[in-house]
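Long-time lurker, finally posting.

We've been working with TIR domain-containing protein (Knipowitschia caucasica) and I want a structural starting point before designing mutants. I don't trust myself to interpret raw outputs, so I'm hoping someone here can both generate the structure tokens and explain anything notable. Sequence follows.
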Amino acid sequence: MDGGELVPTALSQGESYHVFCTYSSTDYQWTHTLIQQLEQSGLRVCDHERDFTAGRPILNNMSESIQKSQKVLLVLSAEFVRSRWCLLEANMSMFRDCLQRKPIVPLLLQRDLPIPLPLAHLTYLDVHQPDFRQQLMRVLCTPNQEMQGSTVVPYQPPSFYNGKSLEPLPAVNEEQLNRDHFKSFDCGEWSESVPEQLRLIIQQPEVYQQAIQIINTNEKHRIMRELQKAVGQANSLLYEQNVLIGAQSNSKLLLVYVSVERCRQELSGHDQDQEVFYKAIQKYSCDYTCRLSNALLPFETTSTDGHLEGGVCFCEFVMNQMLLGKTRFCCCCMSVFSAFSLW
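Top reply, 14 upvotes:
Generated this for you. Predicted structure of TIR domain-containing protein:
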């Protein structure tokens, strides 16, 4: 690999590697070639397949290797997100201290890949770019103190996560529904366990469990419209966790990380009538989540007063839907008069 005049940063005391590389075993061949090229350029790479201590728990090996490396290289593919990232995320309390001091360098093997939420703010290197290897060498040879904003910080949901789509949630009986023609119109059932990708987001697992129970406790032979209503009811619990659900199909739920707290205040009006907001959540949140996840919102906001930077917030969406339905509302205070009594 031609890195020009780039020289790896000297290893300091306690450091054994310039970079710790983690990847899915399905991407071994591509990653192994890259590691060889990096090492030929003078970088010391910790390869988890090669350098982990045999007989030690994998989590201990990973934690120690990260601590002994200057940077962390993530080779992101669909399989990595499903398997190895889940291992990191599920044990983030163990890795958080060492990760927050290490620049994270994500390599994107597949375009349009759903990115794990705690990595959503990072700048990615696209391996398909013609100058990818030169870009990677520049990053890996840059001293850590010169890499601003390149670390995974302790989890505090910042505003730039707002509106991010998460991995869709398939029904536990999805294959059966797809296989059995007579069940193809039935709605699926979902696990009540908090999925790996939500464990850093959901602060109250029992709330998530209650929300999924609402979705699952409808009649088994229910139509999509009934599933969508159940999802709206579930969202009346989940919104406080900054998560909304949408029903993409009878066997797949969409998940979006989005805060609607300021929208709640806007819709509730000066007298903070919570009933208005809860009815809005139940009626519109399922559709809003699906549209937000698929970037298919019915209009583009030109207002700077919205609550979702660069997108349409929930209360803007609600007001738009009410206008399309000729529902009465007060323009000056954005509070609903008797609109929801018309539902």
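Before you design anything, note these points.
The domain at 17-156 is CATH 3.40.50.10140 (Rossmann fold).
Residues 151-160, 326-343 have pLDDT under 50 and may be disordered.
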